[in-house]
Amino acid sequence: xxxxxxxxxxxxxxxxxxxxxxxxxxxxxxxxxxxxxxxxxxxxxxxxxxxxxxxxxxxxxxxxxxxxxxxxxxxxxxxxxxxxxxxxxxxxxxxxxxxxxxxxxxxxxxxxxxxxxxxxxxxxxxxxxxxxxxxxxxxxxxxxxxxxxxxxxxxxxxxxxxxxxxxxxxxxxxxxxxxxxxxxxxxxxxxxxxxxxxxxxxxxxxxxxxxxxxxxxxxxxxxxx
Amino acid sequence: xxxxxxxxxxxxxxxxxxxxxxxxxxxxxxxxxxxxxxxxxxxxxxxxxxxxxxxxxxxxxxxxxxxxxxxxxxxxxxxxxxxxxxxxxxxxxxxxxxxxxxxxxxxxxxxxxxxxxxxxxxxxxxxxxxxxxxxxxxxxxxxxxxxxxxxxxxxxxxxxxxxxxxxxxxxxxxxxxxxxxxxxxxxxxxxxxxxxxxxxxxxxxxxxxxxxxxxxxxxxxxxxx
DNA sequence: AACGGATAAATTGCATACAATAAAATATGC
DNA sequence: GCATATTTTATTGTATGCAATTTATCCGTT
Lengths: 225, 225
What we know:
The structure is a homodimer.
Chain A: H1 10-23, E1 32-33, H2 35-42, H3 46-59, E2 62-65, E3 69-72, H4 77-101, H5 104-122, H6 126-143, H7 147-164, H8 173-189, H9 193-217
Antiparallel strand pairs in A: 1-3, 2-3
Helix pairs in contact in A: 1-3, 2-3, 4-6, 4-7, 4-8, 4-9, 5-6, 5-8, 8-9
Chain B binds a DNA duplex through helix 3.
């Protein structure tokens, strides 16, 4: 697909770097992000760092408190549930549109992705499954043929990523997830738009609920300086 | 309601200023935003301006092309339709949740807002109606009791505002809009969540379509430097 | 010894200076 | 005379310096 103008701005690169470290948990929620420290660590001046932090703040990944510095966004259980609620609806919308608009090539790609998930499940490879699961979902977003919706959904997905990581190890996660995927795939391939939407919504909602339970059990996680 | 920590950052203020001028059409889509010029005009240095532009870029209101400066986002008809499609779904979701969760106080406020709209319609006061219409919708967002959803919906609403302005003068816009509002209000007050969602979706979709027609008729508007 | 206030240190926010790149203008060759 | 190459100019991107405010430390008082 058409790759964008490819920015060479340092602040963009810094933003990507920091975002990567946030979503992979290197910088855990609540961690303080010192501008000078980051600048020194990444080998640039404070200016690109500041610009990157502002960008990440707009994306909701960090929180900037005036005169008090930036911290990795530490989203409370309440708000997290709200975000999953919206995520479920966005995914449902992607599914509804995808069922109506998916091309044959996209159908094949989606089926392939599903099969790849199956192999990862059989191999009990959680890391691979996580990655392939993501690809499966992203293909649905793209098949909606609504570029704006795709972007919004991807953005929110990324934003929830640091929290989703926590539920990787839940018992039988892969099997239930895969079974749900099968239902979703079938609904999309048979162009049942409302059924696709419904199944995707349920798929995400259950993730959110699972997650909420997990959060409730773990009192709190790394609020480090 | 709870007002936030109230930032004193200049870049935030600049961002608000520039956003205001964009959504009110003072800075029309496609217009070049010169950092030095803006800085001089707003009485600050380039730094807060740059930070503001980055923020607005994240919000989708301006587009920053590397080394080539920023322009007010000029969204094509295609993408605009996509955005209205998403907007319709977000509003529908707000309506669905609002119907289930609205409090009695919020019911009264919503009814009052509706009545205010009626008065503006009777007075044939388009400007007032536009403002009151916005309030009506915002009350529904808030009544969803999902703060994240509310934020996202408001953000997208704002982003579409410069384009919505164009259809203010469509014949009988107020009357049809008001009639649709009546149906929406009734569905919410009787707690019919799916009906609320459906009517809100239709209400927004029709806006999007009206707008698309309008865009198609006007070949293009102000792409000036 | 604990609490409160004053001073000191550190960090953010803004302004300015400089460097790098793209656009414009001018000159040059055919 | 037009197209192309080169210089000039303007604007963005980055670094640094300074001021303002917050946070930490230290000392005095109760």
